[in-house]
Amino acid sequence: MLIPFELFVMLVLANGAPVVVAKVLKNRWAAPVDGGRLWADGRPVLGRSKTWRGLIAGIITCALFSLVTGLGLIFGALFGLLALLGDIVSSFVKRRLGLLSSGRAVGLDQIPEALLPMILAMFWLPLSVLDGLLIVALFTLSNIYFSPILYRLGIRRHPH
């Protein structure tokens, strides 16, 4: 029964570790994943907020949490990587739609980063499809609800 809770926490860690590390390190080691390149449409491929520092922080945080909880270092690293790849896919799609990195896209901002690692979890762990989808829904709703609160507390740079 703990596995769904642990997976939810891992989604929060993958999403939150880059934010916390950016707050602590400011502009240090903040190289963008896309190298600052533009896509054929003239818009950034991803944008400045998707950094190697954030990617590494999310992967390491998930890997360590997963190791401590007994799910395994490799599972945690892959889980974190997939969560952040889902976030990168969201950013890519948002740029193609003309939305800025601070632009809100309910669902697109949450579902890919929760669904990709949940697919891994459903194959790797004794987790039903229903439980996996419930975790995705819970993460999506909690992200939509708590992001404005974290913004008001000065933890997030944007309210969504």
Automatic annotation (TrEMBL):
Checking InterPro entries in the record gives: CarS
Question: Organism's domain of life?
Answer: Bacteria
Alphabetical UniProt keywords:
Membrane, Transmembrane, Transmembrane helix
Q: Which residues cross the membrane?
A: 55-85, 133-151
Q: What is this protein called?
A: CDP-archaeol synthase
Query: Which classification does the entry list for the species?
Result: Bacteria, Pseudomonadati, Pseudomonadota, Gammaproteobacteria, Pseudomonadales
